[in-house]
């Protein structure tokens, strides 16, 4: 064993854990900053620590690995930790304790992390950081925080890279008889649905999900966090149900179902709406890697504890042992009919531009491998309703916590994680605009599509937000094109629907040429209602479907 600087051992652990980029301020943990400069890890220094946490979040969602952010022992990254915990994102936050800007960060961070700890002895550094990665990855993933006091940062420890390695992470498998019980319920359902949540994406279980759905010919819905778990152009795709980010035909299909196999979904209120309506007339099987999630929102007919990938794999094996691959039946055809007859329009030629038209152009222009990042607000609701997604880890949405400004730094992190992919941030209000300057400085090319519904005159909103909205555009407001140009970034404003596609093509070319963020600001109409079409609660008057024949597994 060799005695090395504590920070050097920490950086060696980060490298061996697969971290290639760290986001954060450049002076919070000076010894660690110095060790990073001598490593293979890229240190992207941000303008705001919250932006660093969100960038690490985007990197983690894109790679599936633990994202890392660094900052002072203050509270600026708490919002980012909360967002990561709410959305089950593995994150490691490293804070440096000095008297200036110091706070009781460990105690403050405990409610929004899986584990928060202060390193007291330099000799503990490799082991505490190994455990931090293990905790962040284990079970339901989430953020951890390690605080480094100044004396610990400057200390030394015995360490040998050759004798160190990541700690094992348990992958819980389901009990065989529970899998059989789940298939028993599925087999007796007449109109089953699979509901794929973010846990399917996190587990990398998309292939198993596809195999199960195709073998049994079961339609598949996704939650907002589960977008990308199942290709949305597949014949078995059944849309999204919910009160905001939903499709009308998805709600209709859900309410016609009689059994829901929910995998890696946590039944957030924006998905379920009125629980009496949501639950009425259907049974639920709930699969989750976190046992305390089972029965938390409502009691399922069957709870299944386990990692989504082995659970779905064993369900596929059990299904194949019971029956040959099925052909599409009445239920699948009915869901397809709902899709054909209840899809919302997106071909509007109106001026001002209607939001659905923006997403029609986005869907038509960008290739399937594009990574989209969307934050919180009307733009996320519209994105969830109209944007099509085909592959896992290509649609990054800030779900439960909803911090404003998340999308730009998260997109920056996604681009650092997969520089070969095109990354598009679908944005609303320009919070954390300072991180655009960071992306420009570090040559991180992004396309930002800002959907601006604030600058085309007053409208009566369901709550008093007119004054806040008017701060962004119009007289006395912000000219986002000029603001971007002041940061050295190209920008263009679009106010006619026929010009959107050309602007997207221009932005992609400019981002590739300049290697900086490029803005397309699309001016859309200012509507009073956030969502388009009825929410889940509003379609409970739909007539029930005629009874269908129960699957005969002996065929």
UniProtKB/TrEMBL annotation:
<dbReference type="Pfam" id="PF00205">
    <property type="entry name" value="TPP_enzyme_M"/>
</dbReference>
<protein>
    <submittedName>
        <fullName>Tartronate-semialdehyde synthase</fullName>
        <ecNumber>4.1.1.47</ecNumber>
    </submittedName>
</protein>
<dbReference type="InterPro" id="IPR011766">
    <property type="entry name" value="TPP_enzyme_TPP-bd"/>
</dbReference>
<dbReference type="GO" id="GO:0009099">
    <property type="term" value="P:L-valine biosynthetic process"/>
</dbReference>
<dbReference type="GO" id="GO:0000287">
    <property type="term" value="F:magnesium ion binding"/>
</dbReference>
<dbReference type="InterPro" id="IPR045229">
    <property type="entry name" value="TPP_enz"/>
</dbReference>
<feature type="domain" description="Thiamine pyrophosphate enzyme TPP-binding">
    <location>
        <begin position="375"/>
        <end position="522"/>
    </location>
</feature>
<dbReference type="InterPro" id="IPR012000">
    <property type="entry name" value="Thiamin_PyroP_enz_cen_dom"/>
</dbReference>
<comment type="similarity">
    <text>Belongs to the TPP enzyme family.</text>
</comment>
<dbReference type="Pfam" id="PF02776">
    <property type="entry name" value="TPP_enzyme_N"/>
</dbReference>
<dbReference type="InterPro" id="IPR029035">
    <property type="entry name" value="DHS-like_NAD/FAD-binding_dom"/>
</dbReference>
<dbReference type="GO" id="GO:0005948">
    <property type="term" value="C:acetolactate synthase complex"/>
</dbReference>
<feature type="domain" description="Thiamine pyrophosphate enzyme N-terminal TPP-binding">
    <location>
        <begin position="7"/>
        <end position="104"/>
    </location>
</feature>
<dbReference type="GO" id="GO:0030976">
    <property type="term" value="F:thiamine pyrophosphate binding"/>
</dbReference>
<keyword id="KW-0456">Lyase</keyword>
<dbReference type="Pfam" id="PF02775">
    <property type="entry name" value="TPP_enzyme_C"/>
</dbReference>
<keyword id="KW-0786">Thiamine pyrophosphate</keyword>
<dbReference type="GO" id="GO:0009028">
    <property type="term" value="F:tartronate-semialdehyde synthase activity"/>
</dbReference>
<dbReference type="InterPro" id="IPR029061">
    <property type="entry name" value="THDP-binding"/>
</dbReference>
<feature type="domain" description="Thiamine pyrophosphate enzyme central">
    <location>
        <begin position="179"/>
        <end position="314"/>
    </location>
</feature>
<dbReference type="InterPro" id="IPR012001">
    <property type="entry name" value="Thiamin_PyroP_enz_TPP-bd_dom"/>
</dbReference>
<dbReference type="GO" id="GO:0009097">
    <property type="term" value="P:isoleucine biosynthetic process"/>
</dbReference>
<dbReference type="GO" id="GO:0050660">
    <property type="term" value="F:flavin adenine dinucleotide binding"/>
</dbReference>
């Amino acid at each position: 064993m060799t005695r090395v600087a504590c920070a050097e051992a920490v950086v060696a652990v980060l490298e061996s854990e697969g971290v290639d980029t760290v986001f954060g301020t450049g002076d919070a943990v000076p010894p660690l900053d110095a060790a990073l400069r001598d490593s293979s890890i890229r240190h992207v220094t941000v303008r705001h620590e919250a932006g660093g946490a969100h960038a690490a979040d985007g990197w983690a969602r894109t790679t599936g690995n633990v994202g890392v952010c660094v900052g002072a022992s203050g509270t600026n990254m708490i919002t980012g930790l909360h967002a990561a915990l709410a959305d089950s994102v593995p994150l490691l936050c490293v804070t440096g304790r000095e008297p200036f800007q110091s706070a009781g960060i460990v105690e403050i961070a405990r409610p929004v992390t899986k584990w928060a700890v202060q390193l007291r002895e330099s000799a503990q550094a490799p082991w505490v950081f190994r455990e931090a990665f293990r905790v962040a990855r284990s079970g339901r993933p989430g953020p951890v925080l390690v605080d480094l006091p100044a004396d610990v940062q400057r200390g030394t420890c015995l360490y040998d890279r050759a004798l160190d390695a990541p700690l094992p992470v348990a992958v819980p498998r389901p009990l065989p008889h529970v899998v059989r019980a789940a298939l028993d319920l599925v087999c007796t359902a007449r109109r089953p649905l699979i509901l794929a949540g973010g846990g399917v994406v996190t587990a990398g279980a998309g292939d198993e999900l596809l195999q199960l759905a195709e073998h049994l010919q079961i339609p598949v819905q996704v939650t907002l966090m589960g977008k990308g778990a199942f290709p949305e152009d597949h014949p078995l795709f059944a849309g999204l149900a919910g009160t905001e980010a939903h499709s009308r035909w998805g709600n209709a299909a859900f309410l016609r179902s009689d059994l829901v196999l929910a995998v890696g979904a946590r039944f957030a209120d924006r998905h379920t709406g009125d629980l009496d309506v949501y639950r009425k007339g259907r049974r639920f099987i709930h699969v989750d890697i976190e046992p305390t999630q089972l029965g938390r929102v409502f009691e399922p007919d069957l709870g299944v504890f386990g990692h989504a990938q082995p659970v779905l794999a064993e369900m596929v094996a059990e299904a194949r042992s019971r029956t040959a691959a099925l052909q599409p039946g009445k239920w699948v055809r009915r869901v397809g009919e709902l899709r054909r007859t209840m899809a919302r329009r997106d071909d509007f030629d109106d001026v001002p531009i209607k939001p659905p038209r923006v997403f029609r152009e986005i869907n038509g222009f960008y290739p399937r491998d594009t990574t989209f990042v969307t934050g919180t607000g009307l733009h996320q609701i519209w994105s969830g309703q109209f944007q099509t997604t085909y592959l896992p880890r290509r649609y990054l949405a800030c779900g439960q916590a909803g911090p404003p400004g998340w999308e730009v730094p998260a997109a920056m992190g996604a681009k650092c994680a997969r520089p070969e992919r095109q990354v598009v941030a679908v944005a609303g209000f320009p919070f954390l605009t300072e991180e655009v300057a960071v992306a420009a400085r570090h040559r991180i090319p992004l396309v930002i599509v800002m959907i601006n519904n604030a600058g085309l005159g007053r409208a009566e909103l369901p709550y008093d937000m007119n004054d806040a909205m008017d701060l962004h555009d119009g007289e006395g407001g912000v000219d986002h094109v000029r603001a971007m140009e002041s940061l050295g970034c190209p920008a263009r404003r679009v106010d006619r629907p026929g010009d959107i596609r050309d602007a997207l093509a221009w932005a992609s070319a400019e981002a590739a040429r300049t290697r900086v963020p490029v803005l397309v600001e699309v001016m859309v109409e200012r509507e009073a209602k956030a969502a388009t079409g009825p929410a889940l609660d509003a379609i409970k008057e739909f007539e029930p479907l005629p009874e269908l024949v129960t699957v005969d597994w002996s065929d």
